[in-house]
Amino acid sequence: MRSSILIPLVAASFGVAQNVNSTYVTGLVNALNGWGLTSLTSGLTSLSSDPTTQALLARLPNGTRTIFAPNNAALAAAGGAPFNGSTLAYHILSGTFTANNIAKDPAHTIGRTFLNGSLVQLEGNEPQVLALQGSNTTLFACNQPNTTSILESNVYQNLVVHTIDNVLVIPQTPAVLLGLSNFSSLASVAGPALPAIEAAHGITIFAPTNDAFTAAQSSLGGANSSTVTNILENHIINGTALYSSEFGSGTHVSNGGQQLTFNTNSSGTFVTSGPSTAQVITSDVLMSNGVVHVINGVLLNSNFNPTAASSAYAAATSSAGTSGVAPTNTGPIAGSGGNNGGHNGAIGVNPVSALFAFVGVAAGALFVL
């Protein structure tokens, strides 16, 4: 009885705004209820006057889309967490994502969601992404607070709908991420630069673990603040979010003007800067304005080339996507052997560099022997 009441309510509520196709929405609500996702349809009803949700549903019939639909238990477990238009937008991807085109462990597939606006600060006004990974039996959303699995998959017209067992959490700001205990050493040395990191539109950080910083102390000897600053610069690509699926494409230059190269073999994926190599132990930890890749060593490259840095930053920012609200990708984001959209270079002299001039002083406590 409840489902039959909700169907006309949802269709009527959305059909009068934002050019929403009420016939399409009615069919979708019918399908969701048939798959046991009655709490989700209740949530849609509660958002009937929300402009973000209205705009999402108006765009939904156009092109191929993938929806990650939390089941009733997932929405109940979310408790006080807000289910709003932004949360809904993060559960919708542009393109078709199924077991056939999702990378298998340890690789990731990156897809653009519909989430944009105040909660996203990527280059070129690109929407936020979701990292996915497959196994022999199921698909997973990566680097979520709770392990999030796809329980079943269905199709409605142009939509692939994956039922999932948790509500996806929108990527947080760098300040929130660096506040986690396993990044405490990085947070200590990067603290003065945090405002500039948060202000960046598209940023990639190769973040050494606490153990990596401890091990680096013996290698740095009596390094001065300038040396430490240069080393930290070479852990950042500013102006672009470089996801693991793009490691093999294009040329990637650090904030210190040094080339970053990548190698993947049976032991894992490795990043090299100058004479120093570290293993990527966790990739694609998403932030509101970029991505973090956790590495098991400090990249001890103290070289700095401001000309190369400036040139790479200019190239990255000039070629960054200009998609606005609508996602430009219709499937997984992946390298193609050449430069890929806004990810064809990396970064140069910019406000992050200016603030890192102070980081070396703060880092002295970590690296003085």
TrEMBL record:
UniProt key word Signal:
yes
Residue span, FAS1 domain: 25-168, 170-299
- List the GO biological process terms: macroautophagy
Signal peptide per UniProt = 1-17
User: Do you know which InterPro entries this protein is assigned to?
Assistant: Adhesion/Biosynth-related, FAS1_dom_sf, FAS1_domain
Keywords, in A-Z order: Signal
Give an example GO cellular component term for this record. extracellular space
- For this entry, the protein name equals FAS1 domain-containing protein
Organism whose genome encodes this protein: Botryobasidium botryosum (strain FD-172 SS1)
